[in-house]
Fold this sequence. Notes:
It contains one helix and 13 strands; from the N terminus they run αβββββββββββββ.
Amino acid sequence: MINNSERGVSLIITFFIMTIILSVVMAISTILYSEIKIIRNIGNSVGAFYLADSGAEEVLYYDRRAVPTEAVRGICNICSVVSSCSTTSTVTDGCQKCTDCNIAFTTTINSEKSYNVDAHVSVVPHTPCDLFGGDVESYGTYMNTKRAINLNITGEVKTGLGPSMSNPQAIVSGNGKIAISVTLSPYPDCKKDSVTAYIYDQSDGSLADTVELTASGQCNYSKPWQGVEGKTYYISIGAYDANGYCASVTIIPG
């Protein structure tokens, strides 16, 4: 026969066992909930990353592919096709070059998916044909999770219009003197071109000098330049026509 004191002890033991079991279940539930939350956040993070990537790819696509007629790039054209977009530029030719501008736009796919893009492009000084550099920052948002992508872009404004260059030469004649010359396509306005040679020290890539070439003969441009004997240089020649379009070529003196 079980007396009352034994019943009390059994009840206490049962209570402690149930408390331990409940504590274990709660601990496991907490761990599982945290793991499920982490897995869900990883999925949201991947979605946000690809949204950010979509924004960066959109900038690159419009800049290189969706170029207006007679323009040389398309980054300034984004705001004509994308809503919630703003652009500021210090140049007056709009999409013709757009080598110094800021673009910002937001694309909302639905209430849970969107991406914001800020792009800045500026001209790298002392380079032919408006070599440009810039940053594209794209922020993707998916289910309140945000991820960002930053691109550093460098390139040259390309165009099929303007001067065509041939026979570029940089001949070393002794004592470091280099004879620089190039011939442009013989179209009527070639004498209105501006042809500049950018001379770089090959050892460290620094700009050694900038030389304006002089017209001589039928669309030929040339000029001697005095370098340092024993040093090696490479030369980029940029030619702008009367409409501001440019072509360039890089040569190593020999």
